[in-house]
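Sequence only, no structure available. Ideas?
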Amino acid sequence: MAQKASPYAIRLGYNQVWNSYFFTKNGKEQINWLQKDQTIRNYLHLLLPDTDRLKIEYIKNNIFIYLYIPEISLVLGEDNSKLTEIMKGIYKIINDDKVAVKINLIEVKKIYTHAQSIANLIASQLKKRTRSRQVLKTLLMKLASEREVRGAKIEISGRLDESDIAQTKKIVQGKMPLSTIDSNIDTGRAEAITSYGKIGIKVLIYKGKIWQKRNKNYVNTEKN
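Reply:
I predicted one. Tokens follow.
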């Protein structure tokens, strides 16, 4: 049988980077930080469901959180009131006065070139009971106008359009070289919880190839 691997996981360390960075002294401390990391992520995704990407770095007594979101004004609120509430919630999760938290907001300008933003957009439209065919049709038109996007694959599964039986709809546009490691593939997943069931969404965006720079100090060691 075929074995499927995550396009993001198999490219880690080559053309993809980790979303969490931390170094621990022992296994007990590692488990503690993993639990806090997951709790912080669940908390932020619950308050900000439109988050495109979330990176967390733990350096000594500092925690740096990088939030990639389409509209920064939704996070800040009036007089940064919403941001202060988010900070209070994070400090409660950490429960350590020595640790300082810093949040960096990064605006995502081109939504249709990021897979997670597209997945979040599909989920929000399905919650409003928009027809799945209409959602996919408009997305194909938007993706066709983006020069950066070389290929796209969108998969929606569940009780679509309030049907009695669960079904899966797939659309593929352009190229999608999943087996080529040097290809730049962005992945996104989301869930739309509706009154008639949960709908799963998976989005893959192909943005061309990333060529690794050759080392200029390379010396040929082959014997003549």
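The two ends are 46 Å apart (CA to CA).
Hope that gets you unstuck.
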